[in-house]
From TrEMBL:
Subunit structure: The complex is composed of two ATP-binding proteins (HrtA), two transmembrane proteins (HrtB) and a solute-binding protein.
Any GO CC annotation of this UniProt entry: plasma membrane
Function: Part of the ABC transporter complex hrt involved in hemin import. Responsible for energy coupling to the transport system.
Topology with respect to the bilayer: Peripheral membrane protein
Domain called ABC transporter: residue spans: 5-225
Record-linked Pfam families: ABC_tran
Keywords attached to this entry: ATP-binding, Cell membrane, Membrane, Nucleotide-binding, Transport
Similarity comment: family membership: Belongs to the ABC transporter superfamily. HrtA family.
Organism: Paenibacillus xylanivorans
Organism phylogeny: Bacteria, Bacillati, Bacillota, Bacilli, Bacillales
Name this polypeptide is given: Putative hemin import ATP-binding protein HrtA
Places the protein is found: Cell membrane
InterPro entries assigned to the protein according to its UniProt record, in alphabetical order: AAA+_ATPase, ABC_transporter-like_ATP-bd, ABC_transporter-like_CS, ABC_transpr_LolD-like, MacB-like_ATP-bd, P-loop_NTPase
GO molecular function, one term: ATP binding
Amino acid sequence: MRNRLVLQGITQTFEDGGVKRTILDKLDLKVAEGELVAVMGPSGSGKSTFLSIAGALLEPTEGEVLLDGASIMGKNKQDISDVRLQQLGFIFQSANLIPYLKVEEQLMVVAKLAGTDKNKAEKRIDELLDTVGLSHRRKAYAEKLSGGERQRVAIARALMNDPAVLLADEPTASLDAERGLDIVSMIARLVKEQGKSAVMVTHDERILPLCDRVLFLENGKLVHH
C-alpha cells in the first residue's frame, strides 16, 4: 500500500530573542492510502506548525515532504499554490464557507481555481453532495446551514479536486458530541473509500476510536503511547 503523505526528518527552528528554539525535531511520518491518523498534543507542542508544513503552507528548516512520492520542497510560489489546490484538501475548525455563496457554488469556486471543465465540475459536485448527504441543500446559503451541515460542505469542498491528502484541523471543535462523531466517521469512511491519506489534529478524545492510529507530538517528534 502506498504512502500518499511522507514527512522525513522535518525540523523547524526559529529565533526567539536571540535564542534558537526547536519546534519540530527530525519528525518522521508516513500515512498510507486509506489511513486516518490523529495527532494530539498540548497547546504549544507544535501541532499547527506540523500541519502547516504537511499542508505546504510553511517550508521546514530541514527535511522533506513527499506527496504521492514526489518532493514538494524548493518549488516556487505558483507551483506550491498548485500543489495545495490539486493535491491537498483542508478541513478547518470552522467550516470557513464564503457567506454569499450557495452550497454548490462553494464547491464550484475550488473547481474554477483548478481550471476544471464546467461539466466535469458539475458532475463532481453532484457526486460529492450526494456522498455527504446534502443534495437537498445545494441551493442553500452558508448562513442557513447548521454547524454539522457546514462541516459536511467543507468535507465536500476539500475533496472537490480529488486530492491525495486530507488535512483536518480540530474539525469537531465547533460541534456537539454527536455531530462531531458523525463528521469524523464520514471523513474516515471517505478516506478509505477514496484511497486518501488523512491527518487530523484534535483534542477530542471521543473521536479517537474512529482513527486508524493516534500519535502524540512530544519534544518535536510524533510518538505512540
